[in-house]
Amino acid sequence: MKFSERLHEKLQPIWRKNHAHPFVRGIGDGTLDKEKFRFYMIQDYLYLIEYAKLFAIGAVKARDVKTMGKFAALLDGTLNEEMSLHREYGKKFGISAAEFEQASPSPTTLAYTHYMLHVGQSGTLAELVAAVLPCAWSYWEIGKELKDIPGAINHDFYGDWVKMYSSKEFGQLAQWCIDLLDELTVEASEAERNALEEIFLNTTRFEYLFWEMAYHQTMWPADEDDEK
Ligand SMILES: Cc1ncc(C[n+]2csc(CCO)c2C)c(N)n1
């Protein structure tokens, strides 16, 4: 069994919760409160700034030029393609790129990005890939599901989001990460596999927490009224 097949079995209960989440369902049927989406866009922008650094670390840890080049392309794609979706939504909300960058991260954004950066900086290349894979894989799966909801892809507000995450490019990117992790674990011991599985499941759980955070617009308890 490929290592990714083992992970795919383990992630099922968490993915089921993602797909049923009111934030995700609301994007699919177009009923999501735009204020919740606005909050999410800001937090996701901050998230992606940190996430992109994982690709830079990946380029440093890569063992061959081809893999290094792919990480460099992913870094560029995140900053200049994926985040341009956020900047376009920002225009609709009246949020400038500078305002996005100056926003305060929520506790969940901080915890998720810091966890990934810790793994990326102190771990092996396989550990870094295990940390970043749930992000690409779970969004692709959600994008594919939402795309099939009638009207979702052409929705005048949420359609662009669905289009981006259900696109072939994002699918290929998730597949590249899956294949790289499988390649890096061919000779891994059971102890190494267990450590990788724990990292993978932790960031899978953080993906769910991110939807929860966005839906409830959760900031630090004492600051809640100031930050919304
Ligand atoms: C919390 C959160 N998780 C996953 C993604 C999706 N995503 C982030 S980077 C990437 C691949 C490279 O650009 C993908 C698919 C997101 N936007 N926000």
UniProtKB/TrEMBL annotation:
Pathway named in the protein's UniProt entry: Cofactor biosynthesis; thiamine diphosphate biosynthesis
InterPro entries recorded: Haem_Oase-like_multi-hlx (IPR016084), TenA_E (IPR026285), Thiaminase-2/PQQC (IPR004305), Thiaminase_II (IPR027574), Thiamine_Salvage_TenA (IPR050967)
CDD domains linked: TenA_C_BhTenA-like
Thiaminase-2/PQQC domain span: 8-216
Catalytic residues in the record: E207 (proton donor)
Gene Ontology cellular component terms for the protein in this record: cytosol
SUPFAM superfamilies for this protein: Heme oxygenase-like
GO molecular function: thiaminase activity
Record key words, sorted: Hydrolase, Thiamine biosynthesis
Primary enzyme class: hydrolase
PANTHER family on file: BIFUNCTIONAL TH2 PROTEIN, SI:CH1073-67J19.1-RELATED
Complexes and interactors: Homotetramer.
Function field: Catalyzes an amino-pyrimidine hydrolysis reaction at the C5' of the pyrimidine moiety of thiamine compounds, a reaction that is part of a thiamine salvage pathway. Thus, catalyzes the conversion of 4-amino-5-aminomethyl-2-methylpyrimidine to 4-amino-5-hydroxymethyl-2-methylpyrimidine (HMP).
Stated family: Belongs to the TenA family.
Protein name: Aminopyrimidine aminohydrolase
Highest classification ranks of the organism: Bacteria, Bacillati, Bacillota, Bacilli, Bacillales
